[in-house]
Design a protein that fits this description.
The chain is built from 5 helices and 17 strands. With 335 residues, it is mainly beta. Strand 12 and strand 13 form a beta hairpin. It is globular. 45% of the residues are buried.
Amino acid sequence: YQRRVHGQVSVALSPTLLKKYSAVFDFSLTCPSADDNDCGPWDRIISATATCSNAQNTTTTQTVEVGRWITPFRRRVGRWFTSAVALRSLVANASTATEPWVCQITVDVCCELWTASLTLLLVDSATSPAAVATALGGGDKSLTGRREPAPFQINPVLYPNMNTTFDNTYNRLRTAFLTTPVGANGALLFALVTGHGSNPPPPVDTGCEYAPTSHSWAINGRGNLALFNTSLLSYQQYMAAGTPCGCVDKLSRGVIANQHGDYPDGRNGWCPGWSVHPFIVDITDALDMAAGAVNSVEYRALSYYVGSAPAWQPYNASEQGCGGYIVMSTSVLWY
């Protein structure tokens, strides 16, 4: 897949191969001009979504966000390696393994013209995604070092309240229910979460771009016994928001250097000129794995800076929000 961003492409993918091999996105970005100054001056979200159907077109999956990236400030370079486990799970369903499946992948960014190249790498299951990035050189060094299980089904987590504005109503009605499929031995939670809406950094009201947040999922109402929280597993991705070097400190992990503007400052779950790292955690032990069992997934977010406080207090957790919005997609991947 290689084209200017606002585009769709259809690709044939083999369930047999995707059950055998791990999958990694190799995503690179540039702008049409040869001069950095002609590239977009803002950080924009690039989202990749996919929907797939089998060869007879008798089964079509839901549309799922499978990857997310943020454009750099006026730099025409960028290459990142990102887990493609969500795309893999769309087509690797053993019960509908007619070859091949055709996936329509949409890569979209608003407002400015960029040229993107998206390649799907299939990696031997004995090799971790992190080893792929190391072997290819450059790019995103923060892929997980563990080998991913082979998912065969993906279920988007859809709450009664899908509001994106993070205010004091954001956490209401955030429980969804999922049924354990036949043949499942475990499951991964896969979430892409970023905070946006900005004003100057603290102590001025910041919106959600520069405000730390945490995001947690409680499985089957078991509280801390089955609570999966970004602050525990991805602390620097979210809690470094608003710090003066929160993004420049991540140059060795793939953030593009020498950007314009305030790119060094930490952001909420992202950085300009970087891939958004999915929050992936194994939730098997918290689930009822009996076929047909119904499991609850309760989501909750906290902000750590609200209003024009005299001093920024990052550990003062609140459900009042951060004056901006949260872009989130969550799925459960069964394996």
